[in-house]
C-alpha cells in the first residue's frame, strides 16, 4: 500500500482492502468486518487509515501525479539490496517528499540516500512502526543533511530502512 500511494497516478483500491482480507473483494457478500477482531488486521487497518490521512494531507503525492515533473528517481539500480528511492513533487518547489522502499527482510541502518538541500529531513511515515505490527525500525530524530552529494543529488542523509517496508521523509526548511 505504501508503494501504491507514493507511486504516480491515481489510486485504485478494492472495497475492503483496509481490512487486509484473505481474498479479494466479494461482490455478493458482506465485507469481512470480523477481521478487525484480530490484532494483525486491526494493526493493518490503523496503518491504512494513517496512510490515507497522509495521502490526503500531502499534496506532493497527488498534485502532479500525471506529470513527469512530479516524479524523480533517486536510486532505481540497487538490485543487490532490493531498495528503491524516489522523490514525489508538488507544484510548490519546497513541497516534496522522499520515498524509500526495502523489498527484503533485512533492515539497513546508516543507509545513505541522495537528497535535495534542506535544513533536515523528518520521517513522516514508516510502515514498520510497532503500532502497525512492525519491528519498530524507525528514524525517530530529524535526519541531518550532509553537504555530500550522492545519487546525483547535491546532498545526502543516512537513515534506517525497515525490513519489507518503506519510509517517507519530508524536508524541513528555515
* Order of neighbouring strands in the sheet with most strands: 1-2-3-8-5-6
Shape, please? globular
Number of helices: 2
Q: Strand content of the residues, in percent?
A: 25-35%
Estimated structural class: alpha+beta
Mean pLDDT across all amino acids: 95
Rg computed from alpha carbons, rounded to a whole number of angstroms: 17 Å
Tell me the distance between the termini. Answer: 32 Å
Low-confidence stretches: none
Order of helices and strands: HHEEEEEEEE
- Can you count the beta strands? 8
Largest sheet: 6 strands, antiparallel
Overview of this protein structure:
The protein is an alpha+beta fold and 174 residues long. It is 14% helix and 31% strand. The protein has two helices and eight strands; from the N terminus they run H-H-E-E-E-E-E-E-E-E. The chain has helices spanning 2-6, 39-57; strands at residues 71-78, 83-89, 96-102, 108-115, 120-126, 143-144, 155-161, 165-172. The strands form two sheets. It has a six-stranded antiparallel beta sheet. Strands 4-7 form a two-stranded antiparallel sheet. Strand 2 and strand 3 (96-102) form a beta hairpin. The longest helix has 19 residues, at 39-57. The mean pLDDT is 95.
